[in-house]
Automatic annotation (TrEMBL):
InterPro entries: IolE/XylAMocC-like, Xyl_isomerase-like_sf. GO terms for molecular function: isomerase activity. PANTHER family: HYDROXYPYRUVATE ISOMERASE (PTHR12110), INOSOSE DEHYDRATASE (PTHR12110:SF41). The lineage of its organism: Bacteria, Bacillati, Bacillota, Bacilli, Lactobacillales. This is Sugar phosphate isomerase. It comes from the Bacteria. Keywords: Isomerase. Gene3D superfamilies: Divalent-metal-dependent TIM barrel enzymes.
Length: 254
């Protein structure tokens, strides 16, 4: 795997980014990252963040967009995506109040409408998958499977996440296999077995410190169209930048 395919999800450094964006981008560059995935501007203007992205030479490995914007702010999404020269956009997560059958149906219909509307501009629309997308089901399948299943030749891309799949008691290696050439960006977080699934303080850990078989994930990804392996660390005991550095070095080693 090439180094340039390893990206940092900026949600990981949300606090650092809010406080000092330039120092944050500088630190990520020093770790070795050449790509980042956007997750909001954290109180800064898109132009300011874009300037720093360019200054430090980062590629943009997709953008996470708030759920409601796909319903009410398509023009704003387009403007932001074009500013960052990134046409892979993900619904960050389905809002809690939409976590029911009607909400899932409505979400799929709207994301397909957006994909149909934007495909001529070269956009790819996808869905990120927190834990409830695996614990909840619709029509006998997971929410992610349902929403990304193609309809009439049009499909929503998946952004599978090793941690949330593990929280739901599933094997990420097997789950990833469903998304051959339909998951250009994947989320990597390690998971330690033996703790309560909701105990993120203890079951979420740096890559290589838990039980996810990342060697098999990467082998599958290299054969099935993965463009970026995005490291996300929601929580850290050793300092977020140290966690990201540890995960980066491990991923590079395999």
């Amino acid at each position: 795997m090439e180094k340039k395919k390893i990206a940092a999800q900026l949600y990981s450094v949300r606090k650092e980014l809010a406080k000092n964006p330039e120092e944050t981008f500088k630190a990520l560059k020093e770790i070795g990252f050449e790509a980042v995935q956007l997750d909001g501007m954290r109180g800064h203007s898109p132009k300011e963040i874009k300037s720093l992205v360019d200054q430090y030479g980062f590629e943009i490995a997709g953008m996470h967009i708030k759920h409601d914007r796909f319903f009410h702010d398509i023009d704003g999404i387009i403007e932001e995506a074009l500013l960052f020269n990134c046409k892979t956009i993900y619904d960050k997560y389905i809002d809690d109040e939409e976590q029911h059958l009607d909400g899932y149906v409505k979400t799929k219909q709207q994301l397909l409408r957006v994909q149909e509307q934007l495909k001529g501009l070269g956009f790819r629309v996808g869905l990120h998958c927190p834990e409830y997308d695996f614990n909840n089901q619709i029509e006998g399948v997971t929410v992610l499977d349902y929403i990304t299943a193609p309809e009439y030749g049009l499909g929503i891309y998946a952004e599978p996440d090793t941690y949330w799949m593990s929280v739901a008691g599933k094997d990420p290696v097997e789950e990833f296999k469903k998304f051959s050439y339909r998951a250009p960006i994947v989320h990597l977080k390690d998971y330690k077995k033996g703790f309560d699934p909701k105990d993120m303080d203890n079951n979420l850990t740096e890559l290589g410190s838990g039980d996810v078989r990342f060697d098999q994930i990467v082998r599958w990804g290299e054969a099935n169209g993965v463009e970026y392996y995005c490291i996300e660390q929601d929580y850290s005991k050793i300092g977020m930048l140290h966690s990201l550095a540890k995960s980066f070095d491990y991923l590079l080693s395999i």
